[in-house]
Amino acid sequence: MDIISAYREVGTYRGAAELCGTTHKTVKRVVERAANGGTRPEHRPAPHNYDQYRDLVAKRVKTSHGRITAKRLLPVARAAGYDGSPRNFRRLVAEEKQLWRTENHRGRRPGIWVPGEFLVIDWAEAAPGLHVFCAVLAFSRWRFAAFAADQRQSTTLAMIADALAGIGGVPRKVLADRMGCLKGGVVANVVVPTAEYVRFATHYGFSPDWCNASDPESKGVVEHLCGYAQTDLAVPLVTEAAIAGRTVTLREANIAAKAWCAEVNSTMHSEICAVPDERLTGEREVLAALPSLRLEIAAASVTRKVDKLSCVRYGSARYSVPMRLIGASVALVVDCGALLIIEPGTGVIIAEHELVAPGSTSILDEHYDGPRPAPNRGPRPKTPVEKQFCALGQDAEAFLVGAAAIGNTRLSQDLEILLALGAAHGTTNLVAALRRAVAFKRFRAADVRSILAAGAGAPQPRPAGDALVLDLPAATTRSLDAYRITGDGSAS
Fold first, then answer.
1. Would you say 377 and 398 are in contact if contact means Cβ atoms under 8 Å apart?
2. N or C end: fewer C-beta atoms under 10 angstroms in the chain?
3. Is the confidence at residue 288, as pLDDT, over 80?
4. Residue 327, SS3?
5. How many CB atoms lie within 10 A of CB 82?
């Protein structure tokens, strides 16, 4: 049946809906459309209790660049007369923020990286007092990460030098944000690098490049690496150290960083669908060559002479070097919280130590051909009698040490007596008697004479052995009924 005709017959939306097999909302919409001449009636949005405060919210959203929250705007709206719920007001703020973002988006195009063009660098904080430096060769996506204790200029320049050494070449530009350690000033939005950074860039042959202020998207390739290094490298490292109840040292962190870089650079990159190490091999053809000498960064090295203990002193602390350099002079350089000891003639790093507190000592066992031996303060015979007695073996030396420990002041005379007893009873019997005397802590010559006089009749105690387990014989048993008392008083 026609919906219009059914409505005219019954006069209600629900009645016409039951006749036509539809809903009352559909009947209402069809009837209103017919009454409007066949066109859809104009939809009038329902008014909201926050419409009159929309301009107030829009002005503050625009001023704050879309960062202000509804929580902080609600008291302002309340003071202006808004008496609605906080939920409705949050809906208004969300609408105005979305409208502002739609009208003020950046609309940037994706980056197109050219081989050998850019090395992008940045810093990130891995933990309190532990920072990670990240660098990406933009075209090949070859990644470099290393840890440091600070973000000073000398540390940053040393990290860039390490990254370039790992790449095996120099790109045309190094792109960084406006980090204060490399920035000397800004004039008319033009960044002025520090004199040290200009000297460093000139030595390596690249041009410093800078991002605009508040524009991290222009170096998103390294921003992503910073987050990746924090979650995939720093967080597991710090977590395992916290579980073990210790702190992560800079040396341990950088060893882990080298292994992590080798892993990620040898794995297929999801963005370029290529292995960074393989792609770097082709990009090296367009990179400039590294300078033949590495630039000296930060404080100049100091010279120290290796003393007789095969150590050098720096900051009132001792640091070990290989024993072959005793009497030679070496250069000391502090780099990223570590002390590097360099052989001046070759420039080779011969030792690396963590900086220690004044008065402390940092020793590496490989500098002394192995770990420190246990102290040996055993007998050192000098007189003929002492040499003859100690020649009897370890039992004689143990008797000598024990007798000295109990304060036997007649020990030198006892040695002559013991040697005489050995001549009378034989060396084997004397050594056995000395062993027994040490076991029972009897350290007088008379005690040894008594042991020799007892001979084989002396008991030989032994430590307790295993428990003796025996199978006991089985005995016949009787039931309790056999002991039951009968009525006449006798046992059954």
1. no
2. C
3. yes
4. coil
5. 22
Q: Which residues contact 447 (CB under 8 A, 6 or more apart)?
A: 437
**Placement of tokens 């042959």 in the chain:** 205
Cα–Cα nearest to 436, from 425, 424, 445, 448: 448
On the 0-12 / 13-18 / 19+ scale of CB atoms within 10 A, 249 is middle
E strand spans, 213-328: 302-305, 311-314, 317-320
DSSP 8-class letter at 47: P
Per residue in 392-445, pLDDT tens?
888 888 888 888 888 888 888 888 888 888 888 888 888 888 888 888 888 888
**What is residue 298's predicted lDDT score, i.e. its pLDDT?**
59
* Terminal-residue alpha carbon distance, the chain: 108
Tell me the Ramachandran region of residue 489: left when phi exceeds 0, alpha when psi lies from -120 to 50, beta otherwise.
left
User: In Å, how far from its chain's centre is CA 14?
Assistant: 71
Could you identify the residue written with the tokens 């409208």? 99
Contacts of 333 (CB under 8 A, 6+ apart): 299, 301, 339, 340, 342
Q: What is the DSSP letter of 485?
A: B
Q: What pLDDT score was predicted for residue 294?
A: 75
Neighbour order of strands in the sheet with 317-320: 311-314, 317-320, 361-362
Q: Which two tokens stand for residue 65?
A: 């660049």
Residue 299: what pLDDT? 58
Give the tens place of pLDDT for each residue, 96-106. Answer: 999 998 888 76
What is the residue-averaged pLDDT of the chain? 86
Distance CA 348, CA 345 (A): 8
Asked if residue 205 lies in contact with residue 288, where contact means CB atoms within 8 angstroms, the answer is yes
Which strand (E) or helix (H) includes residue 340?
strand 338-342
What does pTM read for this prediction?
0.55
